[in-house]
Task: structure prediction
Amino acid sequence: MSRVDEYIETVNEQLKKTDSFAIPAVIRKQQVDERRFLVMEKIEGQQVTSFIGRSPEFLMDYGRQLAKLHQFQADYFGTVQEGKRANLSEFHQTLISTAEKLIDRYDMHSKKIREYFPVFKEKIRNLESPAFASFILIDIDPSQYVEKNGVISGLVDTEAVAIGPREYDFIALEYLLTEREALFIQQGYEDISNLPKNLDAVRECYRFICLLLDIHGTWDHQWIRHPVRFF
Result:
Protein backbone atom coordinates (compact mmCIF):
# COMPACT_ATOMS: atom_id res chain seq x y z
CA MET A 1 0.00 0.00 0.00
CA SER A 2 1.29 3.49 -0.88
CA ARG A 3 2.04 6.16 1.68
CA VAL A 4 -0.96 8.18 0.46
CA ASP A 5 -3.24 5.16 0.92
CA GLU A 6 -1.91 4.60 4.41
CA TYR A 7 -2.28 8.25 5.27
CA ILE A 8 -5.89 8.50 4.08
CA GLU A 9 -6.81 5.33 5.98
CA THR A 10 -5.21 6.67 9.17
CA VAL A 11 -6.84 10.09 8.75
CA ASN A 12 -10.28 8.60 8.23
CA GLU A 13 -9.93 6.29 11.21
CA GLN A 14 -8.98 9.23 13.44
CA LEU A 15 -11.67 11.55 12.10
CA LYS A 16 -14.37 8.95 12.69
CA LYS A 17 -13.59 9.22 16.41
CA THR A 18 -14.55 12.91 16.55
CA ASP A 19 -18.35 12.53 16.33
CA SER A 20 -18.26 15.24 13.69
CA PHE A 21 -18.83 14.88 9.94
CA ALA A 22 -19.58 11.38 8.71
CA ILE A 23 -16.35 9.93 7.30
CA PRO A 24 -16.17 7.06 4.77
CA ALA A 25 -14.45 3.91 5.98
CA VAL A 26 -11.90 2.09 3.86
CA ILE A 27 -13.58 -1.16 2.79
CA ARG A 28 -10.68 -2.75 0.95
CA LYS A 29 -7.51 -2.00 -0.99
CA GLN A 30 -6.95 -3.06 -4.58
CA GLN A 31 -4.20 -2.93 -7.16
CA VAL A 32 -4.88 -2.82 -10.91
CA ASP A 33 -2.01 -2.64 -13.39
CA GLU A 34 0.40 -1.47 -10.68
CA ARG A 35 -1.99 1.27 -9.61
CA ARG A 36 -3.32 1.13 -6.06
CA PHE A 37 -6.89 2.00 -5.16
CA LEU A 38 -8.86 2.40 -1.96
CA VAL A 39 -12.45 1.20 -2.09
CA MET A 40 -14.35 3.53 0.21
CA GLU A 41 -17.68 3.28 1.97
CA LYS A 42 -20.36 5.19 0.06
CA ILE A 43 -21.87 8.15 1.88
CA GLU A 44 -25.21 9.11 0.38
CA GLY A 45 -25.53 12.60 -0.98
CA GLN A 46 -24.53 15.03 -3.67
CA GLN A 47 -21.34 17.06 -3.79
CA VAL A 48 -21.62 20.49 -2.19
CA THR A 49 -20.75 23.20 -4.71
CA SER A 50 -21.04 26.35 -2.60
CA PHE A 51 -21.85 27.66 0.86
CA ILE A 52 -23.38 30.82 -0.61
CA GLY A 53 -27.16 31.14 -0.33
CA ARG A 54 -27.59 27.99 1.71
CA SER A 55 -30.30 27.72 4.33
CA PRO A 56 -29.67 28.79 7.93
CA GLU A 57 -30.16 25.16 8.97
CA PHE A 58 -27.49 23.94 6.53
CA LEU A 59 -24.97 26.57 7.64
CA MET A 60 -25.59 26.24 11.37
CA ASP A 61 -25.30 22.46 11.15
CA TYR A 62 -22.01 22.90 9.28
CA GLY A 63 -20.77 25.19 12.06
CA ARG A 64 -21.68 22.64 14.71
CA GLN A 65 -19.93 19.83 12.84
CA LEU A 66 -16.82 21.96 12.37
CA ALA A 67 -16.79 22.75 16.09
CA LYS A 68 -16.96 19.03 16.87
CA LEU A 69 -14.03 18.42 14.52
CA HIS A 70 -12.07 21.07 16.41
CA GLN A 71 -12.80 19.39 19.75
CA PHE A 72 -9.72 17.26 19.16
CA GLN A 73 -6.81 19.10 20.77
CA ALA A 74 -3.08 18.46 20.57
CA ASP A 75 0.07 20.22 21.77
CA TYR A 76 1.81 19.52 18.46
CA PHE A 77 1.21 20.19 14.77
CA GLY A 78 1.88 18.18 11.65
CA THR A 79 0.48 15.08 10.01
CA VAL A 80 -2.35 13.00 11.41
CA GLN A 81 -0.24 9.89 10.94
CA GLU A 82 2.65 9.90 13.40
CA GLY A 83 5.83 11.07 11.78
CA LYS A 84 6.15 14.70 10.79
CA ARG A 85 5.15 16.44 13.99
CA ALA A 86 6.61 19.24 16.07
CA ASN A 87 5.85 21.32 19.15
CA LEU A 88 3.50 24.24 18.63
CA SER A 89 6.24 26.63 19.73
CA GLU A 90 7.83 25.90 16.33
CA PHE A 91 4.68 26.43 14.26
CA HIS A 92 5.22 29.99 13.08
CA GLN A 93 8.90 29.44 12.32
CA THR A 94 7.83 26.45 10.25
CA LEU A 95 5.43 28.66 8.31
CA ILE A 96 8.31 31.03 7.54
CA SER A 97 10.40 28.15 6.20
CA THR A 98 7.43 26.79 4.24
CA ALA A 99 6.69 30.18 2.69
CA GLU A 100 10.33 30.61 1.66
CA LYS A 101 10.41 27.17 0.04
CA LEU A 102 7.14 27.76 -1.81
CA ILE A 103 8.36 31.08 -3.19
CA ASP A 104 11.60 29.50 -4.41
CA ARG A 105 10.17 26.17 -5.59
CA TYR A 106 7.45 27.66 -7.75
CA ASP A 107 9.70 30.41 -9.03
CA MET A 108 7.48 33.17 -7.75
CA HIS A 109 9.13 36.17 -9.32
CA SER A 110 6.29 38.49 -8.41
CA LYS A 111 7.92 41.61 -7.03
CA LYS A 112 5.00 42.11 -4.67
CA ILE A 113 5.29 38.64 -3.18
CA ARG A 114 9.03 38.94 -2.61
CA GLU A 115 8.67 42.44 -1.20
CA TYR A 116 5.98 41.28 1.21
CA PHE A 117 7.90 38.24 2.46
CA PRO A 118 10.11 40.22 4.93
CA VAL A 119 6.94 41.94 6.23
CA PHE A 120 5.34 38.52 6.72
CA LYS A 121 8.39 37.25 8.61
CA GLU A 122 8.40 40.22 10.98
CA LYS A 123 4.66 39.99 11.65
CA ILE A 124 4.55 36.24 12.23
CA ARG A 125 7.56 36.30 14.56
CA ASN A 126 5.59 38.62 16.81
CA LEU A 127 2.63 36.23 17.06
CA GLU A 128 2.09 34.05 20.10
CA SER A 129 2.36 30.31 19.54
CA PRO A 130 -1.03 28.60 19.03
CA ALA A 131 -2.65 27.51 22.29
CA PHE A 132 -3.50 24.10 20.83
CA ALA A 133 -3.94 22.34 17.51
CA SER A 134 -6.94 20.55 16.03
CA PHE A 135 -7.83 18.65 12.90
CA ILE A 136 -7.88 21.24 10.11
CA LEU A 137 -8.53 21.13 6.36
CA ILE A 138 -5.58 22.73 4.59
CA ASP A 139 -7.50 23.14 1.31
CA ILE A 140 -10.96 23.70 2.82
CA ASP A 141 -13.60 23.91 0.11
CA PRO A 142 -17.32 23.06 -0.29
CA SER A 143 -16.45 20.31 -2.79
CA GLN A 144 -14.94 18.23 0.02
CA TYR A 145 -18.42 17.54 1.39
CA VAL A 146 -21.59 15.79 0.28
CA GLU A 147 -25.10 16.79 1.34
CA LYS A 148 -28.46 15.11 1.78
CA ASN A 149 -31.80 16.35 3.09
CA GLY A 150 -30.57 19.90 3.43
CA VAL A 151 -27.48 19.27 5.57
CA ILE A 152 -23.95 18.03 5.01
CA SER A 153 -23.99 14.24 5.12
CA GLY A 154 -20.25 13.60 5.00
CA LEU A 155 -16.68 14.79 4.57
CA VAL A 156 -15.31 12.70 1.72
CA ASP A 157 -12.08 14.44 0.70
CA THR A 158 -9.69 14.02 3.62
CA GLU A 159 -6.31 13.80 1.90
CA ALA A 160 -5.22 17.28 3.05
CA VAL A 161 -6.39 17.01 6.65
CA ALA A 162 -3.63 17.90 9.07
CA ILE A 163 -3.15 18.91 12.70
CA GLY A 164 -2.79 22.64 13.18
CA PRO A 165 -4.40 25.72 14.75
CA ARG A 166 -8.15 25.92 14.13
CA GLU A 167 -7.70 29.62 13.36
CA TYR A 168 -6.46 28.55 9.92
CA ASP A 169 -9.82 27.02 9.00
CA PHE A 170 -11.66 30.24 9.82
CA ILE A 171 -9.22 32.43 7.91
CA ALA A 172 -9.52 30.19 4.84
CA LEU A 173 -13.32 29.99 5.14
CA GLU A 174 -13.61 33.78 4.92
CA TYR A 175 -12.82 33.58 1.19
CA LEU A 176 -15.80 31.25 0.64
CA LEU A 177 -18.52 33.16 2.47
CA THR A 178 -20.48 36.37 2.56
CA GLU A 179 -21.36 38.03 5.84
CA ARG A 180 -24.68 36.14 5.91
CA GLU A 181 -23.20 32.65 5.66
CA ALA A 182 -20.45 33.42 8.16
CA LEU A 183 -23.02 34.60 10.70
CA PHE A 184 -25.01 31.36 10.59
CA ILE A 185 -21.88 29.19 10.63
CA GLN A 186 -20.61 31.11 13.64
CA GLN A 187 -23.94 30.69 15.43
CA GLY A 188 -23.82 26.94 14.90
CA TYR A 189 -20.17 26.74 15.91
CA GLU A 190 -20.84 28.63 19.12
CA ASP A 191 -23.52 26.11 20.09
CA ILE A 192 -20.54 23.83 20.74
CA SER A 193 -17.50 26.04 21.27
CA ASN A 194 -16.31 29.64 21.24
CA LEU A 195 -14.57 31.01 18.18
CA PRO A 196 -10.82 31.65 18.53
CA LYS A 197 -10.15 35.07 20.04
CA ASN A 198 -6.98 35.83 18.06
CA LEU A 199 -8.27 35.82 14.47
CA ASP A 200 -7.42 39.49 13.96
CA ALA A 201 -3.85 38.87 15.07
CA VAL A 202 -3.16 35.91 12.76
CA ARG A 203 -5.35 36.83 9.78
CA GLU A 204 -2.80 38.58 7.57
CA CYS A 205 -0.08 35.98 8.02
CA TYR A 206 -2.38 33.00 7.55
CA ARG A 207 -3.93 34.61 4.48
CA PHE A 208 -0.46 34.91 2.99
CA ILE A 209 0.07 31.17 3.49
CA CYS A 210 -3.29 30.47 1.78
CA LEU A 211 -2.10 32.63 -1.12
CA LEU A 212 1.22 30.83 -1.48
CA LEU A 213 -0.47 27.43 -1.32
CA ASP A 214 -2.71 28.63 -4.17
CA ILE A 215 -5.78 27.76 -2.13
CA HIS A 216 -7.48 31.12 -1.73
CA GLY A 217 -6.68 34.68 -2.69
CA THR A 218 -5.04 36.33 -5.69
CA TRP A 219 -2.05 38.63 -5.77
CA ASP A 220 -3.93 41.85 -6.51
CA HIS A 221 -4.01 42.71 -2.83
CA GLN A 222 -7.54 41.31 -2.65
CA TRP A 223 -6.14 38.57 -0.42
CA ILE A 224 -5.35 41.17 2.20
CA ARG A 225 -8.35 43.41 1.55
CA HIS A 226 -10.90 40.60 1.49
CA PRO A 227 -13.72 41.34 3.96
CA VAL A 228 -13.39 39.94 7.46
CA ARG A 229 -16.13 37.41 8.15
CA PHE A 230 -15.32 36.06 11.62
CA PHE A 231 -14.69 38.26 14.63
Summary: Strands lie at 26-32, 35-40, 46-47, 76-78, 85-87, 134-137, 145-148, 151-155, 161-164. The radius of gyration is 18 Å.
